[in-house]
Specification:
The complex is a heterodimer of chains A (238) and B (125). Chain A is an all-alpha fold. The radius of gyration of chain A is 21 Å and the shape is globular. The N and C termini of chain A lie far apart (47 Å). In chain A, 73% of the residues lie in helices and 0% in strands. Chain A has helices at 7-15, 25-29, 32-52, 61-81, 84-107, 120-142, 158-198, 205-234. Chain B has one domain (2-120): F1F0 ATP synthase subunit C (F1FO ATP Synthase, Up-down Bundle), CATH 1.20.20.10. Chain B is 87% helix and 0% strand. Chain B contains 4 helices and no strands. Chain B is elongated. The chains are: A mainly alpha (238), B mainly alpha (125). At the A-B interface, helix 7 and helix 8 of A face helix 3 of B.
Chain lengths: 238, 125
């Protein structure tokens, strides 16, 4: 289902750049979901700049908001890890996931914009970062003994447990990426269907309200699962 | 419960049977017949996938909400924490339906078997 109207695509069209996807490198990097992904990144950077440009002891405005966000997130992660050192290791990646995915999800609720997370490439990219991060953390904390995590509690059961664990780790890749992608794309398809069937004015409003909740919860869940996987990889084996 | 499942299984069989009959009525082993059969099967599979997944997830979400409400009734101070946990649980359960929806969308819009079949029978497009 093609998006009817995208502002950034129109802008790039006016500039004479290839903005509708394709196979060459430039076409790929300027395809619609990448444009909106870049927009989400720019919004993240602008928020960070606004928050840190004039640091004061008594925070005001954007600094206040971001301090509440970052502080609350840090407390939340520490509740899961029970260890401030581990929190500080995973915090940058996980908080970036939370902010980027939240902004990316909410972009889709503005008419003329789309959620970059409604494309499997973006969510698979985020998932790849998360998966590589927690395996790397596991090897960093346990060295080669990290492999014991895959063998289950009883040594005799290891040949049975190993394939099961491998499949569960592959399943994590699929579930983490497809959950976010499916939720976002189903919201967009529902909105599109309602626009076509019931007129553009009042009918899509309930779905948009639901979308506000779903966007927040899915961003939270992605962050939460990344934290849980990392904590599991960093903890002692069974 | 037993009767409900019997009725649902029977109705499903009927739907499948009618689909088969409709294509049997077409008769000839034409090239288009197989492709049409695959299209009809994709439509049927998409609808059934989302329907069955949603019914199962509905039961699961009902259990989840019931647990949260009972906990809140017992100990109203925990309401905030329980609600947050419930929403996480609901989103995790809901994602199962979303997987079925993704599969349904693949079957409808990006069916991997359709190009193969058209290539075998030499139909363009």
């Amino acid at each position: 289902m093609e998006h009817p109207l995208l502002f950034l695509t129109l802008l790039l069209d006016a500039l004479g750049l290839p903005a509708h996807g394709g196979t060459s490198f430039l076409e790929r990097i300027l395809s619609p979901y990448m444009q909106y992904s870049f927009l989400a990144m720019i919004i993240c950077l602008v928020l960070a700049k606004m928050a840190t440009s004039r640091l004061e002891m008594v925070p005001k405005g954007m600094q206040n908001v971001m301090e509440a966000f970052v502080g609350g997130l840090e407390d939340f992660i520490t509740e899961q890890t029970h260890d401030r050192r581990k929190t500080l290791i995973i915090f940058p990646v996980v908080a970036t996931f939370a902010l980027y995915i939240l902004i990316a999800n909410y972009l889709g609720l503005i008419p003329g914009f789309m959620s970059p997370t409604a494309d499997l490439h973006i969510t698979l990219g985020c998932t790849a970062i998360s998966i590589v991060m927690y395996h790397a953390l596991g090897f960093r904390f346990h060295g080669l003994k990290y492999i014991k995590h895959f063998f289950g509690p009883v040594p005799a059961m290891a040949p049975v447990m190993f394939p099961i664990e491998i499949f569960s780790h592959i399943g994590r890749i699929l579930s983490l990426s497809i959950r976010l992608f499916g939720n976002m794309v189903s919201k967009e398809i529902l909105l599109g269907l309602l626009f076509m069937l019931a007129g553009p004015y009042l009918a899509p409003l309930p779905i948009m309200f639901l979308g506000v909740l779903v966007c927040l919860i899915q961003a939270f869940i992605f962050m939460m699962l990344s934290i849980v996987y990392s904590v599991e990889a960093m903890s002692e084996g069974h | 419960m037993k009767r409900f499942s019997l009725v649902s299984v029977l109705s499903m069989l009927m739907v499948v049977g009618f689909a088969a009959m409709a294509f049997a009525a077409d008769g000839d082993v034409e090239k288009g017949g197989h492709v049409g059969m695959l299209m009809a099967a994709s439509l049927l599979a998409a609808g059934l996938a989302v329907g069955i997944a949603a019914s199962g997830c509905g039961v699961g979400m009902g259990h989840c909400a019931r647990g949260c409400l009972e906990g809140t009734a017992r100990n109203p101070e925990l309401a905030g924490k329980l609600t947050v946990t419930m929403f996480i649980g609901l989103a995790l359960i809901e994602s199962l339906t979303i997987y079925a929806l993704v599969i349904a969308l693949i079957a409808l819009y990006a069916n991997p078997l359709l190009p193969q079949l058209t290539k075998i029978f030499g139909i363009a497009g």
